[in-house]
Write a structure and sequence with these properties.
It is a single chain. The protein is α/β, with parallel strands linked by helices. The chain has two domains: 230 residues, no CATH class; 119 residues, 3-Layer(aba) Sandwich (abc type-2 transporter like fold), CATH 3.40.1710.10. Helix content is 63%, strand content 9%. It contains 14 helices and six strands. Strands 2-1-3-4-5-6 form a six-stranded mixed β-sheet. Helix 1 crosses helix 9, helix 9 packs across helix 10 and helix 13 runs antiparallel to helix 14. It is elongated and about 75 Å long. The N terminus is likely disordered.
C-alpha cells in the first residue's frame, strides 16, 4: 500500500506568493496607482520646467586653482557661466557676495587623482544671497559633469557648503535635493500607511484573510508578505524618483540605508494602523500619518537653528525628521560617521515599532482583529 505525501510549500514561497498577490492588487486599484504615479508626475513636471526657468541665468563662479586643473576651462564652456580666478582660498570666501553664485577651491593634484580613479573630494561654496535658479543650474551641471566624466567611478565626490556673505556656513539647498526628499517621503507614506491598512481591511471584508490563515501560511507569513509587497513598491518608485531628481549623488550608500530604515519603520506603522483600527478609522489615520511623515521634508531647505524652539521640538519628535537630516548629509557628500547619529535614531525607531507589533500579535488572533 502506497502512502502519498503532500509537500507543503516552503515558508519563503508562501511569503513571496502573498507579496505577489498584494502587488497585483495594488496595481489593479486606480486609487493606489494614482497615488504611486503622483510623485513621479511632480518630479517630471519640475524636470521639464527647470531648464526653461534657469537657462537665462548668468552664473559667476570664483575659482582658486592651485594645481592648474582643467575643470575651470570645462566650466567656462558652459553657456552663461563666467569664471573668475583669485589668488587664494581665503579670497574665494571673501568674494562670495552679491551675485556671485559659487566658489570653488581646487586642491593640487585634482586632475591626476581623477585620472587615476581616486574620486577626490571637492568642496564647493554656495552664496546664500544668489538666485536659487542660478544655484540650481550650477549644481545640476556639476552633478552631471562629475557623474559621467568617468564611469563607473565618479570623477569627484562633491561636498556643498552654503554660506552667508562673510563666511558663516548654512544648510546647503538644492531644488533637486528638496524634491527628492519630499517625493521619497511622500511615496513611502502613501504605500505603507495608506495601501497596507487598505489591503488588510479589504481582505477582512472579502474573506480572503480567513482563507490565507486557513492555508499553511501563519499570521507572521501574511504580514511579512504584505511588508515585502510594500517594500518592493516603495523601492521601485523611490529609485525612479532618485533618477529624476539626482538622488544618486554624494554618499549614495548612506542615502540607500536611510531610506531603507525609514521604509521598514513606516511598514511597521502601516501594519499597526491596519490591525488596530476599523476601516474608516484607518483611512483617517492613514491621511494624518502621511501628512505628519512628510512634514519634515517641507523644512528640509531650512536650518533647524533658524526655527523656533517649539518647531524644532516638534520636528525632532517625528522619526522621518532624521531621514531628512540624513539625506541632507548624504546628498552633500558627508561621511558615514557624520550621518551615524541620524541612522542610529532611525534604527531605534524601526526596532521599536516591530517590538510593539510583535507584542500586539502575540496577544491577538489576526482573524478576530476589528470584528
Amino acid at each position: 500500500m502506497e502512502i502519498s505525501t503532500i509537500r507543503l510549500p516552503a515558508r519563503w514561497q508562501l511569503i513571496l506568493s502573498i507579496a505577489r498577490k498584494d502587488i497585483i492588487t495594488v496595481l489593479n486599484h486606480p486609487y493606489h496607482v494614482i497615488s504611486l504615479v503622483m510623485p513621479l508626475f511632480i518630479s517630471l513636471v519640475f524636470l521639464v520646467l527647470m531648464p526653461a526657468l534657469f537657462d537665462n541665468d548668468t552664473i559667476r563662479v570664483i575659482v582658486y586653482d592651485e594645481g592648474n586643473s582643467n575643470l575651470p576651462e570645462q566650466l567656462g564652456l558652459v553657456e552663461n557661466v563666467k569664471i573668475e580666478r583669485v589668488g587664494s582660498a581665503t579670497a574665494v570666501l571673501e568674494q562670495l557676495t552679491g551675485d556671485v553664485v559659487a566658489g570653488v577651491v581646487l586642491p593640487p593634484g585634482f586632475d591626476t587623482a581623477v585620472a587615476n580613479g581616486v574620486s577626490p573630494e571637492l568642496t564647493i561654496y554656495l552664496n546664500s544671497e544668489a538666485r536659487s535658479s542660478s544655484i540650481a543650474k550650477f549644481q545640476r551641471f556639476m552633478v552631471e559633469e562629475t557623474a559621467f566624466l568617468q564611469n563607473p567611478t565618479p570623477a569627484a565626490q562633491i561636498s556643498w557648503e552654503e554660506r552667508q556673505p562673510g563666511g558663516s556656513e548654512m544648510t546647503p539647498f538644492s531644488i533637486e535635493n528638496f524634491l527628492f526628499t519630499t517625493m521619497a517621503l511622500l511615496t513611502t507614506g502613501i504605500v505603507t500607511c495608506s495601501s497596507l491598512p487598505h489591503l488588510l481591511h479589504e481582505e477582512k471584508e472579502k474573506g480572503t484573510l480567513h482563507a490565507l490563515l486557513s492555508s499553511p501560511a501563519s499570521q507572521a507569513d501574511v504580514l511579512i508578505g504584505k511588508g515585502v509587497a510594500a517594500f518592493t513598491l516603495t523601492t521601485v518608485v523611490v529609485l525612479l524618483i532618485a533618477w529624476l531628481n539626482q538622488g544618486f549623488v554624494g554618499s549614495w550608500g548612506i542615502t540607500a540605508v536611510a531610506i531603507m530604515l525609514t521604509t521598514l519603520f513606516m511598514i511597521g506603522l502601516g501594519l499597526l494602523l491596519g490591525l488596530l483600527m476599523h476601516s474608516n478609522q484607518a483611512k483617517a489615520a492613514a491621511s494624518i500619518s502621511v501628512m505628519i511623515a512628510a512634514l519634515p521634508s517641507w523644512f528640509s531647505a531650512t536650518s533647524l537653528e533658524a526655527l523656533t524652539p517649539v518647531t524644532r521640538f516638534i520636528l525632532r519628535a517625528i522619526p522621518t525628521q532624521h531621514l531628512v537630516e540624513a539625506l541632507n548629509q548624504s546628498l552633500n557628500g558627508r561621511s558615514w560617521l557624520a550621518t551615524s547619529g541620524n541612522l542610529a535614531i532611525l534604527l531605534t525607531w524601526t526596532v521599536g515599532i516591530y517590538l510593539i507589533l510583535i507584542w500586539y500579535l502575540r496577544r491577538t488572533n489576526l482573524q478576530w482583529i476589528n470584528q
